[in-house]
């Protein structure tokens, strides 16, 4: 028997023991509550996934840069990704940062050259249109090198599946004050079934320099891009945020928000009414909710200072009950992601119709990782 087979059999045995011993075939953890509360670190659950690094091949000999924006296509098979132009910025670049990959990792469509500074969050609506946030303005150093980049950033762009720019929310190159339609460091975008658009701001809310004046809100727009309302402010109470970094809707139409700087999920209705907060998925950078309300939360930033006892990785559970069922450990890396701690894990996460998970890597490890469900009980 090969070491690989022994490892897989051992993993399966551990998983089977867990399923048999746990009520309902899951491992129930503390779900948190509307008032929060301490949750014991969850790092030791079974991992029924095989990790396959370096999924996808870019054309023309290009190398992957940081990929925090990633989403499954409406066909459930193809994957959209936003590459930061081979590095961690698209300032001055002429390559297409938005790519569509087939199930074998081949690029079958690409577009978006000259539009972005820092592509960050991504969503695909029910019509197959691709929404991408441009989460910051050009830096002083970038403008010194590329002085023509003043009219980009702090915007959300909607593209057709063929790459036609259909709509822009915010005024690229400007900075909003958190009260109206102009945007400030938009992290995430998602479109509700009725066409309403939700955008999370800002990326600076989790920084040590953030203050109560730091913008931290969810802005709601109509399907044609008109500002409707916003809610939230900087803080740690219900309905307050320290970087709303990612979104997902569950089957009930509830909006799940990865409140990264507060190490929690917050759940709202589409009018902004607070429903609950969960801490058991920890410091979430990327979020997806798949069929049967399976929740995928990727953690790229845990370290001993921010989240004592917690490790980077991906926690997979239920959006219905809050149970955490599986844990995929971080990659080994001499340089940690998220600025500290151990190892590296991506920021973006997408799940195809077959249950394969795709992680968008940022920082010391770049590109896309595929996680294949080899041992999920059927």
Question: What do these coordinates show?
Answer:
With 378 residues, the protein is mainly β. The chain is built from two helices and 24 strands. It is 7% helix and 32% strand. The strands form six sheets. It has a four-stranded antiparallel sheet with strand order 1-24-23-22, with no helix packed on it. Strands 2-3-4-5 form a four-stranded antiparallel sheet, with no helix packed on it. A four-stranded antiparallel sheet has the order 6-7-8-9, with no helix packed on it. A hairpin with a 5-residue loop joins β6 (119-124) and β7. The longest helix is centred in the N-terminal third of the chain and has 19 residues, at 3-21. The protein is globular and about 50 Å long. It starts with a helix and ends in a 5-residue tail after the last strand. Residues 1-36 have low confidence and may be disordered.
Overall mean pLDDT stands at 91
Summarize the biggest pleated sheet.
Answer: 4 strands, antiparallel
Largest sheet, order of strands side by side? 1-24-23-22
- The span between the termini is 25 Å
What structural class should be given to the helix and strand makeup?
A: mainly beta
Number of strands: 24
Detail the poorly predicted runs. Answer: 1-36
Percent helix, as a range, is under 10%
Radius of gyration: 20 Å
